[in-house]
Every structure is written in structure tokens, then in C-alpha cells.
Design goal:
Layout: E1 11-15, E2 24-28, H1 32-36, E3 41-46, E4 49-55, E5 61-64
Antiparallel strand pairs: 1-2, 3-4, 4-5
Length: 65
Amino acid sequence: MNPNPNTASVSTPVPAPSTSAPEVQHVPVLPSADLLRGQKVVAIDHNGSLYRLQTTRQGKLILTK
């Protein structure tokens, strides 16, 4: 069940970092528009550090500390 209705219900398989039998973990996919909410720059607080997520004129994303 998806607790946030604004997040995508699609998940992307990502191989588990292991040398044993390969397992696949499903990672939730969040559209960048949901993170940016119409802004060109947003701040992300992660473990007490502030990061900056910004979009470029070419439509690419840059994450800086």
C-alpha cells in the first residue's frame, strides 16, 4: 500500500549489492516534479546536512551539498 498518493506506484528493480545469490530490491520512483513543486531549486535536509537539488536550463538535475 502506498501511504503517499502523490508518489508513483511504479518501482524500479535495483540489484542488491551482494556477491551471494542475486536479489532484486524495488525502489519507489518519485517524479522530479513532485520534489521540485514548480520551483527550480529545493533544499533537502538529510542527516543534519543541507543539500540543494536544482534543475538546469537543459532540464537536468544537480544535487550539491
